[in-house]
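Record type: monomer structure entry
Structure origin: computed from sequence
Chain ID: A
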Amino acid sequence: MTTESAGRKPGNGNESKMAANARKGVESSAEDIQDDFESLQDDVARLTQQLARLAAAKGGEAWGIAKDNLDDVMSGARSKGREMADAVGDVRDNLANAIDESLARRPYTTLGLAIAAGFIAGALWKR
Protein backbone atom coordinates (compact mmCIF):
# COMPACT_ATOMS: atom_id res chain seq x y z
CA MET A 1 0.00 0.00 0.00
CA THR A 2 1.19 3.48 -0.77
CA THR A 3 1.04 6.29 1.65
CA GLU A 4 -1.46 7.97 -0.52
CA SER A 5 -3.84 5.02 -0.62
CA ALA A 6 -3.31 4.37 3.05
CA GLY A 7 -4.41 7.92 3.83
CA ARG A 8 -7.69 7.45 1.99
CA LYS A 9 -10.55 5.95 3.77
CA PRO A 10 -13.91 5.06 2.29
CA GLY A 11 -16.24 7.98 2.66
CA ASN A 12 -13.56 10.60 3.21
CA GLY A 13 -13.98 14.19 1.96
CA ASN A 14 -12.26 13.75 -1.41
CA GLU A 15 -14.66 11.09 -2.59
CA SER A 16 -17.73 13.03 -1.52
CA LYS A 17 -16.36 16.11 -3.31
CA MET A 18 -15.80 14.02 -6.42
CA ALA A 19 -19.32 12.62 -6.20
CA ALA A 20 -20.71 16.11 -5.69
CA ASN A 21 -18.73 17.38 -8.69
CA ALA A 22 -19.94 14.43 -10.77
CA ARG A 23 -23.53 15.12 -9.68
CA LYS A 24 -23.13 18.79 -10.60
CA GLY A 25 -21.68 17.75 -13.96
CA VAL A 26 -24.61 15.43 -14.62
CA GLU A 27 -27.11 18.09 -13.54
CA SER A 28 -25.31 20.65 -15.69
CA SER A 29 -25.37 18.26 -18.65
CA ALA A 30 -29.06 17.58 -18.07
CA GLU A 31 -29.74 21.31 -17.98
CA ASP A 32 -27.69 21.79 -21.16
CA ILE A 33 -29.63 19.00 -22.86
CA GLN A 34 -32.92 20.53 -21.69
CA ASP A 35 -31.84 23.96 -22.99
CA ASP A 36 -30.76 22.40 -26.29
CA PHE A 37 -34.10 20.57 -26.55
CA GLU A 38 -36.05 23.78 -25.90
CA SER A 39 -33.92 25.58 -28.46
CA LEU A 40 -34.61 22.79 -30.94
CA GLN A 41 -38.35 23.06 -30.25
CA ASP A 42 -38.20 26.82 -30.89
CA ASP A 43 -36.26 26.26 -34.11
CA VAL A 44 -38.78 23.67 -35.31
CA ALA A 45 -41.66 26.05 -34.49
CA ARG A 46 -39.98 28.87 -36.44
CA LEU A 47 -39.25 26.53 -39.34
CA THR A 48 -42.87 25.39 -39.37
CA GLN A 49 -44.05 29.01 -39.50
CA GLN A 50 -41.60 29.79 -42.30
CA LEU A 51 -42.75 26.75 -44.27
CA ALA A 52 -46.38 27.79 -43.79
CA ARG A 53 -45.61 31.30 -45.05
CA LEU A 54 -43.62 29.86 -47.96
CA ALA A 55 -46.45 27.49 -48.86
CA ALA A 56 -48.93 30.34 -48.72
CA ALA A 57 -46.69 32.52 -50.88
CA LYS A 58 -45.95 29.74 -53.34
CA GLY A 59 -49.63 28.77 -53.37
CA GLY A 60 -50.50 32.35 -54.24
CA GLU A 61 -47.76 32.37 -56.84
CA ALA A 62 -49.01 29.08 -58.28
CA TRP A 63 -52.53 30.51 -58.37
CA GLY A 64 -51.20 33.57 -60.19
CA ILE A 65 -49.39 31.39 -62.74
CA ALA A 66 -52.48 29.23 -63.22
CA LYS A 67 -54.64 32.35 -63.59
CA ASP A 68 -52.22 33.78 -66.15
CA ASN A 69 -52.26 30.49 -68.05
CA LEU A 70 -56.05 30.41 -67.90
CA ASP A 71 -56.19 34.00 -69.13
CA ASP A 72 -53.89 33.04 -72.03
CA VAL A 73 -56.07 30.05 -72.89
CA MET A 74 -59.25 32.12 -72.69
CA SER A 75 -57.67 34.83 -74.84
CA GLY A 76 -56.64 32.20 -77.37
CA ALA A 77 -60.15 30.71 -77.30
CA ARG A 78 -61.66 34.16 -77.85
CA SER A 79 -59.28 34.71 -80.73
CA LYS A 80 -60.14 31.34 -82.27
CA GLY A 81 -63.83 32.07 -81.71
CA ARG A 82 -63.51 35.34 -83.58
CA GLU A 83 -61.64 33.58 -86.39
CA MET A 84 -64.38 30.94 -86.59
CA ALA A 85 -67.10 33.60 -86.61
CA ASP A 86 -65.27 35.43 -89.38
CA ALA A 87 -64.92 32.16 -91.31
CA VAL A 88 -68.65 31.40 -90.88
CA GLY A 89 -69.41 34.95 -92.05
CA ASP A 90 -67.20 34.43 -95.11
CA VAL A 91 -68.92 31.11 -95.90
CA ARG A 92 -72.33 32.76 -95.44
CA ASP A 93 -71.35 35.61 -97.74
CA ASN A 94 -69.94 33.20 -100.33
CA LEU A 95 -73.09 31.05 -100.12
CA ALA A 96 -75.31 34.08 -100.48
CA ASN A 97 -73.29 35.25 -103.50
CA ALA A 98 -73.43 31.76 -105.02
CA ILE A 99 -77.22 31.62 -104.54
CA ASP A 100 -77.66 35.08 -106.05
CA GLU A 101 -75.48 34.10 -109.00
CA SER A 102 -77.31 30.78 -109.41
CA LEU A 103 -80.68 32.57 -109.33
CA ALA A 104 -79.50 34.93 -112.03
CA ARG A 105 -78.10 32.17 -114.31
CA ARG A 106 -80.44 29.21 -113.62
CA PRO A 107 -83.58 30.28 -111.76
CA TYR A 108 -85.55 26.99 -112.22
CA THR A 109 -82.65 24.79 -111.16
CA THR A 110 -82.12 26.93 -108.07
CA LEU A 111 -85.85 26.75 -107.26
CA GLY A 112 -85.77 22.93 -107.61
CA LEU A 113 -82.73 22.69 -105.34
CA ALA A 114 -84.40 24.92 -102.74
CA ILE A 115 -87.57 22.76 -102.80
CA ALA A 116 -85.46 19.57 -102.44
CA ALA A 117 -83.49 21.07 -99.55
CA GLY A 118 -86.76 22.10 -97.86
CA PHE A 119 -88.20 18.62 -98.33
CA ILE A 120 -85.07 16.99 -96.81
CA ALA A 121 -85.02 19.45 -93.90
CA GLY A 122 -88.73 18.77 -93.24
CA ALA A 123 -88.19 15.00 -93.32
CA LEU A 124 -85.31 15.27 -90.88
CA TRP A 125 -87.30 17.62 -88.66
CA LYS A 126 -90.11 15.07 -88.21
CA ARG A 127 -87.73 12.43 -86.85
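Annotation 1: Confidence is low (pLDDT under 50) at residues 1-7.
Annotation 2: Helices lie at 3-7, 13-105, 107-126.
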